[in-house]
Amino acid sequence: MIHIIDDDPSVRRGLGMFLKSAELECTCHASAEEFLETGRLQGHDLLILDMHMPGMGGCDLLKHFTEKKMHIPVIIITAYDEQASRECAKNYGAVAYLRKPVDGEALIDLIKYSILL
Fold it and tell me: With contact defined as beta carbons under 8 Å apart, do 70 and 89 qualify?
């Protein structure tokens, strides 16, 4: 299952429709807290995670996974390319760091690669 976590409804809707058109199963969450409340993490999940969100941001969620020793493939997406965000993504093991708007074909390739990890 691919989990899209982004506070922007248009991003969630657009990515969700795109992934479903590529025959990939996905679900959308408006925040990191909402995602964590679902308790829906399974062994073969992948996250597409917005770096900048109100409340718990992408970096905070990456840190949470590291502290819990959870190894989940995460693709970071962001509209604000900042050195601190890139370093956080790298330091906490994100598979990729992409700027919005995201290239759909590159995203599909990353998802396929990440699932094989």
Answer: no
pLDDT digits (tens, 9 = 90+) for 36-58: 998 877 767 999 999 999 999 99
CB-based contacts of 109, cutoff 8 Å, min separation 6: none
Q: 46 pairs with which residues across the strands?
A: 2
Give the whole-angstrom CA distance, residue 39 versus residue 70: 13
* Domain boundaries defined on the chain: 2-116
2-116 folds as Rossmann fold (3.40.50)
Q: 2 forms bridges with which residues in the sheet?
A: 26, 46
pTM over cut 0.90? yes
Distance in angstroms (rounded) separating the CA atoms of residues 77 and 99: 6
- Cβ neighbors of 20 (< 8 A, separation 6 or more) are 26
Task: Please give the Cα distance from 32 to 73 (Å, whole number).
Answer: 15
Contact predicate 92/63, CB 8 Å: yes
If you compute the radius of gyration of the chain from its CA atoms, what whole number of angstroms results? Answer: 13
